[in-house]
Amino acid sequence: MLIKPDAFERRLVGQIISRFENRTFKIKALKLIRPSRELAERHYAAHRGKPFYELAVSFLTSGPVVAMLLEGENAIEIVRTMTGATEPCKAQPGTIRGDYTLSITYNLLHASDSPENAEAEIAIWFKPEEILP
Ligand code: CMP
Fold this sequence. Notes:
Blueprint: E1 2-3, H1 5-9, H2 13-22, E2 26-33, H3 37-43, H4 53-60, E3 65-71, H5 75-83, H6 96-100, E4 109-110, H7 115-125
Antiparallel strand pairs: 1-3, 1-4, 2-3
Adenosine-3',5'-cyclic-monophosphate (CMP) binds next to loops.
């Protein structure tokens, strides 16, 4: 997952990490990074050409991002449930987006949506030696 620049600006990084730790996910890798445009473009490659692509890429490069690799049973589904829907009207209270944002763009975090995408995103954001065994 990525904790985005708006979370950093709003000092929500610790609270967001805490939610996942409280749920007993294990942090396998963690880094604070100021992504280059090239890195952000690789991350959002599947969205290239969509109307929101340009804004999503420029937002991701606008400030620090925390990249975090979490491990746990059913991690992808549970992390996405805890993250909340992308569409603000559908983000339920109790989720991170449902509690802290009204914006479809400035939406605090990104969570991988499938094992295949998680594998690809882990390879984009982490070197093998940065990941705990
Ligand atoms: P994220 O989960 O990082 O994946 C793509 C991002 O593009 C998304 O969160 C939003 O920040 C942004 N975005 C903006 N508009 C849309 C949209 N209509 N549909 C999906 N993503 C959008």
